[in-house]
What does this fold into?
Amino acid sequence: MDFELLSGFSQVETIARGRAIRELARLCRTHGKGDWRKMKAVACIRLRNGRTRLAELHWYEAHGIGRKETKRKRYLD
It folds into this structure.
C-alpha cells in the first residue's frame, strides 16, 4: 500500500462475491480458497508525502483469511 489508514471504514459495501469476482482463480491460488468478496468503503488515509485525504478503498476479503490487496480507487475530497 502506498498509504496509511488513519480512520476506520465507513459506508462499507460488497461489490462482488464468489464467481462474480474476476480475479477469483488468482485469489484462491495466491491466498487460499475461501468465500471471497470484493469490498469497498470510505476512509481517511495519509499518503507517502504526508497529505491526509478522504478516499474510496477497494479490497478482497475472505473469512479466516482476512483483508487482502487494499487499493485506493479515488479521492473524495
